[in-house]
Amino acid sequence: MKKIILGLTGASGGVYFLRLAQLLSMQEVELHIIASSNGEKVLQYETGVSLKEQVKLWGGNGAEIVLEDNHNLFSATASGSSGFEAMAIVPCSMSALAMLAHGITETLLTRAADVMLKERRTLVLVPRETPLSTVHLKNMTELSQMGATILPAMPGFYGRPRTMEELVDFIAGKTLDSLGIENTYYKRWEGKYEE
Ligand SMILES: Cc1cc2nc3c(=O)[nH]c(=O)nc-3n(C[C@H](O)[C@H](O)[C@H](O)COP(=O)(O)O)c2cc1C
């Protein structure tokens, strides 16, 4: 069974996390969720959702789900030997980007992502901020050069989305693509131009 880690930080855009976690919970995967305390707070503020309560609800969807403690560095997710294949941080704060770009790993979230980088496994970062400062851009460049996929929360409009759900699914679907999970949650460009 595929072992995947999903991280949540305190950037705006917890809706992307909620949808992605819901879609992953319907897959045959072992899903470990790691949230920063700011991530939980911003999620609750923006969506009214309590992460702990929501994880219980996803539990019935099929996947094996573990809600990790961000302060527990003894977790399996903190070690390369545990065999997690891929990790996504959705949304990824500029603070988390800075920590990762410089190897600072005091929390489980940053340690687990650092493990993905050192093991050269899949790490997908979904940053959300605007405008971006030079330091934000430099940190993204560093992480891209280290092998991470930088997948900004920038939905495309070529599928002519009509609802917020479609915009959210664009990012959730693209993130699943990068995690190596086939999906049809967003409208792919088919090369047909209509006037
Ligand atoms: C309502 C709210 C929205 C925020 N939005 C963003 C954002 O879009 N991007 C970002 O980098 N930080 C944002 N922040 C700031 C982060 O939460 C803050 O930098 C925090 O230290 C990140 O911590 P974490 O990476 O441990 O979750 C926001 C904070 C609040 C309260």
| CATH architecture descriptor | 3-Layer(aba) Sandwich
Question: Uncertain regions: pLDDT < 50 for 5+ in a row?
Answer: none
Largest sheet: 6 strands, parallel
Q: Helix coverage percent of residues? A: 25-40%
Describe the protein's architecture and organization.
The model has no long low-confidence stretch (mean pLDDT 97). It is globular and about 55 Å long. It is α/β, with parallel strands linked by helices and 195 residues long. The chain has one domain: Flavin prenyltransferase-like (Rossmann fold, 3-Layer(aba) Sandwich). Strands 3-2-1-4-5-6 form a six-stranded parallel beta sheet, with helices on both faces. It has seven helices and six strands. Flavin mononucleotide binds next to helix 2 and helix 4. The site of flavin mononucleotide has 15 residues, from helix 2 and helix 4. Its EC number is 2.5.1.129. It is an enzyme of class 2 (transferase). It catalyses: dimethylallyl phosphate + FMNH2 = prenylated FMNH2 + phosphate. Pfam families: Flavoprotein.
